[in-house]
Design goal:
Elements: H1 3-21, H2 56-80, H3 84-111, H4 121-131, H5 135-163, H6 169-194, H7 196-244
Helix pairs in contact: 1-3, 1-6, 2-3, 2-4, 2-5, 3-6, 5-6
Length: about 250
C-alpha cells in the first residue's frame, strides 16, 4: 500500500477513535486546519517568538518524543485521575498518539530515519513527579500541563503544514494537524473546567498587575508634568524679577 493511501486510512481511523472516545454516534467531519482555534481561558500574553522550523527527520523525531510522553501521561491519567472526563481525555491521548506513532514509524523506516524509543530525561522526571500525585491534585496539574504543551505541538505541525515539501512527511503533517488542533481545544476546555477557580484568580491577578502598571505609568507621567510646570514657573518668576530690578549705575 502506498504511503499516501496509508495516511488517508490513518486519518479516518483516528477520527473514528476521537468520536468513539467522546461518545459520538457517527463520525464528524474534521474542521479545516485554518478553522482551528484554541479556546481562550485567560488574558493572552505576548509569547516569545519560537523557531519551529525542522527538517523532516527532526520533525518525526520530535513527534516521536511527544508521542512517547503523551502515551505515558495518558495512561497515567487513566489510572489515577479522579474526574471521569480527565480519565477519558487521558485515554484519548494514549490512543491517538499510539496511532500517530505507528504511522511515523512506517515513514521513518521507509526513509531510513532513526526515531527515539525512550523518553527524554526531563519527560521521565515529569512522569515520575505526576505519578506521585493523586485525585484532584493530579487532575489540575495534568490538565494545566496539557493546555500548555498542545499549542506548542500544534505550532510545530503548523510549520510543517506551511513549509514541508517531503512527499511522505507533508501529507502526514497536513492530515494530522487538525487532530492536534482538536487536542488543543479539548485540553483548554477541560482545563477551564478543572482549574476554573485557579484560572479566575490568575485572571484577576493579571488584571490587577496590568492596572497597577498603568497606574505607575500615569503617576510617572503626572510627576514629569508637575516637574515641567514647576520649572516653567520658576523660569517665568526669574524673568519677571529681572525686569523689575533697576539697573545699577556705573561707579565713577
Amino acid at each position: 500500500m502506498h504511503t499516501n493511501s496509508r495516511l488517508g486510512i490513518f486519518a479516518s481511523l483516528v477520527l473514528l477513535q476521537l468520536c468513539a472516545l467522546s461518545g459520538c454516534k457517527k463520525a464528524e467531519k474534521i474542521a479545516p486546519a485554518e478553522a482551528i482555534a484554541p479556546v481562550a481561558t485567560v488574558q493572552p500574553t505576548i509569547a516569545p517568538v519560537v523557531d519551529n522550523s525542522m527538517t523532516p527527520e527532526v520533525f518525526l523525531q520530535s513527534t516521536a518524543r511527544t508521542d512517547l510522553f503523551e502515551i505515558k501521561m495518558g495512561k497515567l491519567a487513566m489510572q489515577i485521575a479522579e474526574a471521569q472526563s480527565v480519565k477519558d481525555f487521558g485515554q484519548r491521548m494514549a490512543a491517538n498518539h499510539t496511532a500517530i506513532q505507528v504511522i511515523i514509524s512506517k515513514i521513518a523506516k521507509e526513509q531510513s530515519f532513526t526515531l527515539p524509543t525512550s523518553m527524554t530525561a526531563d519527560d521521565s522526571a515529569t512522569v515520575e513527579r505526576f505519578s506521585a500525585m493523586q485525585g484532584v491534585t493530579f487532575d489540575k496539574a495534568y490538565m494545566t500541563l496539557m493546555a500548555e504543551i498542545h499549542p506548542k505541538t500544534l505550532a510545530v505541525f503548523r510549520w510543517q503544514y506551511d513549509n514541508c515539501t517531503d512527499i511522505a512527511v507533508k501529507p502526514f503533517a497536513v492530515q494530522t494537524m487538525p487532530i492536534i488542533g482538536t487536542h488543543v481545544r479539548v485540553s483548554e476546555q477541560l482545563n477551564a473546567e478543572v482549574n476554573k477557580e485557579e484560572l479566575r484568580i490568575a485572571a484577576e491577578l493579571k488584571a490587577a498587575e496590568l492596572k497597577a502598571a498603568e497606574q505607575r505609568k500615569a503617576d510617572a507621567a503626572a510627576a514629569i508634568t508637575a516637574a515641567n510646570a514647576a520649572t516653567m514657573a520658576k523660569n517665568a518668576g526669574s524673568k519677571k524679577s529681572n525686569k523689575s530690578t533697576p539697573p545699577v549705575p556705573p561707579t565713577q
